[in-house]
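Example protein
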Amino acid sequence: MYKKLISLLSIGALALLQAPTTIASSTLEVEAFDTIAGYSTTIEVENAISYRDIEILITKPNQSELILEGETDEDGELQLDMDGYHLKQAGNYEIKGKYSNENNYGQTDSFKVYEDSVSLNKSLLEADQSTAEATGYDPVKLSITLEDKYGNPINNHEISIISSRSGDYITPYSETKTNDQGKTTFYAYSDEVGISTYTAYDMTSNITLSGRAKVAFFSPTKTLKDIGGDNLFTSVLLASDGGEAGPVDHFEIEDIEEQVDINKFVNFTVTAYDENDLTVEDYTGTIRFGSSDDNSDLPNDYTFMAEDQGSHTFSLSLRFGTTGLHTLSITDIDDRDIEGEIEVQVGTEGTGNATVTPNTTEESDADFTLLTPQAGTYSLSTIEISGQAEYGLYIDIYDNSEILTEVFTTPDNAFSYEADLGSGLHQLYAVTKDADGNELETSETVSVTIDMDAPILDYVTISPEGDLAAGSTFSVEIFSEPNLNQAGIILGDKIYELQESITTKGVYKGTLLAPETEGIYELDIILVDTLANEIQYSNQATISVVEAVVVVEEEVVEIEEEVVVTPSDITGVEAINGDSRVTLTWEAAVSGSENTFIDHYKIYYGPDPELLFSTVETYDSSTTWYIPGLQNDTTYYFQVVAVDSEGAESLGRSATMEGTPEAEEVIEELGKLHESAEEPSLEETGTPEETPDSGPQAAWVLLFTIVFAEFYFKTKKKINQKI
């Protein structure tokens, strides 16, 4: 019985020894460096086992996860670069690693991603209302939000609010600095009727936000009267304000001289009054102009806005074309009993008032120019077109020769328009006009490209085709637009980064690892362009993973390896620069066997000594060849090998030679190289001893030479036999 028990224990121990070992947990330590949103960071592993596969798990602040993989070097170290595409969200990132064959991750570390600089487009200044009573105690809430270009809130920045009117009172709600959400709040008060424009100034970054908030403060008397009752406060306020204006009764034309010059554009103001000559600040009707001068130019119909507060100035929009006494009249188009008029004496030039008029022959106070946008590519469709021009001019804004709008210059010699442009190329420019519609000056043209479209995926290729063994590697190529910021493949819960081909733009390549479990897997593709337009294409390709076939060798048979004799290595490589080409010469190679000869040569070249991915093969055993179609003033690197008649290449490549094509340079040494280059014998090359010209055109000369030589020797032999 004891023997049986011992036997069972032995079998159990043996089974434990033969069972695969699985490590329950990992002691791997991983760390990463702090960075800024949108910028890359470096992940480091030290003191690990040499040449082991490592899996790094990164958990983002939003709890999404990303896995990166790599292999340690001989010192047990690993460095991985984490692309900035994955680091757009500010906050704390957790990171931990494990050996790929382990179950659990090791110690968790963290690194921080800080928000980027303040974005003028993302940051906002907003008012909770566009109109308010000018009581001096009714607040307008101004909310400021600071964000970077990725939408990360920027906290602890000191904010100041500036009003366009010195009489406004502005106070912070609690703090003048932004909180963790990048927000802060101010309150604005005013007891002065009119329009206030508020601007937010970030004192920490020393920048002013692009957005403005406009608030129209109106007289509070109407609101107080609507409350009703006979209270002392209302009576006093009404008395001090001169009483509440009633319904509009008439218009008055103001700020115009009684005598003006003929054909001169003048300014004037129209104000709506009630029967007590109080300004009707809430008038929002539409007025129409008339004149006793049939040759006059009048403003178009105008609808008063709340911001006008019952009074509007018309700049350089009235011109009389006939001398004499004329009447300018105004009527409300809905109620013709509401009207106003003024008599104006029109005289010849020099007798009237000196009103400012557009003049293209004299230097104006403001040079006409476009200030925004700058030429370039934008990912937003809304573009502000602004500039500087003389006050009183009309500005036509054009896009691709089609007019977008007409705007009027402001008293501070400025104009602006917020255009909504579609995707594509836009040629933007502006034209100044006088009140007659005469074009005066055209601005420069600014080329703007709107790119809101995500990159387009053309197609995907997978190599090798067919079933893939579990755990094996395979290659993926995707074809899209060039110079993407990021191209990646999602397979399962892993993201594989693809790299753009150096030789073929728009082609992105990468090597992926097939899952360990059999099944059909779908590949998703992520593309991000330089403007951060991002798209994920789902289920663009599938792979079929099958069980890996394990080959068991029952008997090892030693097979004598066939020794392949290769041509000798190439020496004496020289390069001569030409226009868009580099000419190479080298010493002739020697074949490695009596049964073979040098058939041709193969040239490897590229823009870097480590990136010689381009190749070209000569047509024959000539030792001179040129590579055309190269870019001038760019350095290229070359290596040469020989290829024999059996297709075997030299065991090693030649020393690396560099060349830089240069424009308009005549290479006079090429002929000398043909004359001085040492030629291989017929026995070595199997071709005539004459070296053809460099480049592919020489093949025809070589072919003709071979045929002619063969015909010549046969004919000579026959003649000798007859003699």
In short: The CA atoms of residues 85 and 324 lie 74 Å apart.
